[in-house]
Design goal:
Layout lengths: L19 H18 L5 H8 L4 H16 L2 H11 L1 H21 L3 H35 L5 H26 L4 H22 L16 H6 L1 H18 L4 H10 L3 H28 L2 H22 L6 H33 L5 H27 L6 H17 L4
Helix pairs in contact: 1-6, 1-7, 1-8, 3-6, 4-5, 4-6, 4-15, 5-6, 5-8, 6-7, 6-14, 6-15, 7-8, 7-12, 7-14, 10-14, 10-15, 10-16, 11-14, 12-14, 13-14, 13-16, 14-15
Length: about 400
């Protein structure tokens, strides 16, 4: 394992200087998310209304997509360590193009399932390859005086969130034609990404060594500091997933419909795009990595507590939506602190030459945490307990995770 490095963020007031490769990878994240989120928000309705799938089968298909992506990140990361970033990214783009095109024409259940699995596995290839290289390049840039690594990773987060904001708008416009046009547009975007990377992405990236795939999981699973980071980051991901589970239920209770959910999602996206860099700059001057992550988890816990304490009042209308807006704001601010730090910490905790494996494992292990805890959340919702209980129970998760954040 590489020797631990100091975890206080580099204090710089100048702008981050990006290398051509970093600029390419950050723009890659923007393009990835535009293509992906042009399709994903409309998939559920297409499967239920157009294809005619039962509700349980739609849920099963969406769960398969998550598993084939998040659960297999560790595989994509290991492949990137073994074969390099370029072939893994290009292979992922080819599979994503094929998956979107297949989904656009799929009508039978087996064809839909096959295309969705292909779409998910494509991301399991290119995402950990790109993210691990961004993290490695950010560390090298920091060492060369190019600015704090967390600010580079914050730019990466902003690019992804901007893509997640623009993608659904593009998809909604194309949906006026039909869902097939949306899928083919997504495939076209990834075709452009494939062509750009085939031309611009280096065959060999200086400083990135290729490592055999065998023998890496044992040390990873014995790395207590890394596993603690995965648990703490998993608490953040679990909180984010409540935007899809707890939040819509609360919004519908307060407003009588789920229409305000779209505005709350837009609020979250705009906060990240507009405030991520200032927040990261502020944290970089004043906080260590550990304190930044713990503060982020604390804000998330306060967000859940706000709704939990307001819930017994049973407010409706605009006053009833204010706790939800506070929750989304605090959750987003917490994520702004936690996400760049988690990514920035991986290179310090990873074995030499296995940054892809560790980056993939961060998301896969955190995803398993989310899967287990989300099932428990569903049980709480169905238990008949007072409605404040799920919110306060989930507030306890990031609060407890503050203890797990590893020391430098």
């Amino acid at each position: 394992m590489t020797a631990p490095q100091p975890t206080r963020l580099r204090r710089t007031s100048g702008r981050v200087r990006l290398t051509p490769l970093l600029r390419l990878l950050i723009l890659t994240q923007l393009a990835f998310n535009i293509g992906f989120f042009a399709v994903l928000p409309f998939l559920s309705e297409h499967l239920g209304q157009t294809v005619g799938m039962a509700g349980w089968l739609v849920g099963f298909v969406l769960g398969l997509r998550t598993f084939s992506q998040q659960g297999l990140f560790v595989v994509g990361g290991a492949l990137a360590d073994r074969y390099g970033v370029r072939p893994v990214v290009l292979a992922g783009c080819v599979l994503r193009i094929a998956g979107f095109a297949w989904l656009g024409y799929a009508e039978a259940a087996w064809a839909v399932i096959g295309s969705v699995l292909l779409i998910g596995f494509a991301a399991a290839l290119f995402s950990p390859a790109v993210e691990s290289e961004v993290a490695r390049q950010a560390v090298e840039s920091e060492a060369a005086g190019g600015g704090s690594r967390t600010r580079v990773l914050a730019l990466f987060t902003v690019a992804g969130q901007a893509g997640a904001f623009v993608g659904p708008l593009l998809g909604a416009l194309l949906l006026e034609l039909d869902f097939r046009a949306v899928c083919l547009a997504g495939a076209g975007i990834f075709g452009l990404v494939l062509a750009g990377h085939a031309w611009l992405l280096p065959q060999r990236i200086p400083g990135r060594t290729r490592t055999r795939m065998r023998g890496g999981l044992g040390p990873l699973l014995r790395n207590r500091r890394f596993l603690a980071l995965c648990c703490a980051y998993g608490a953040c991901l679990l909180a984010y997933n409540q935007l899809y589970l707890l939040l819509p239920t609360e919004v519908e209770r307060a407003a009588g419909s789920q229409a305000p959910v779209a505005w709350l999602f837009a609020l979250s996206s705009l906060l990240v795009v507009g405030a991520q860099l200032p927040v990261t700059r502020w944290a970089g001057v004043r906080l260590t990595l550990r304190r930044s992550m713990r503060l982020g988890l604390l804000l998330i816990a306060v967000g859940f507590t706000t709704v939990g304490l307001a819930r017994p009042a049973d407010w409706t209308g605009t006053p009833g939506l204010l706790p939800s807006a506070a929750f989304v704001t605090l959750l987003t601010l917490g994520q702004m602190l936690v996400t760049p730090v988690a990514r920035a910490w991986v290179p310090e905790l990873a074995e030499e030459g296995r940054i892809g494996l560790y980056t993939g494992a961060l998301f896969s292990l955190s995803g398993l945490t989310v899967l287990a805890c989300t099932s428990a959340t569903g049980l709480l919702l169905d238990s008949g307990l007072p409605p404040t209980v799920p919110w306060l129970a989930l507030a306890a998760v990031p609060a407890a995770a503050m203890v797990l954040v590893p020391r430098g």
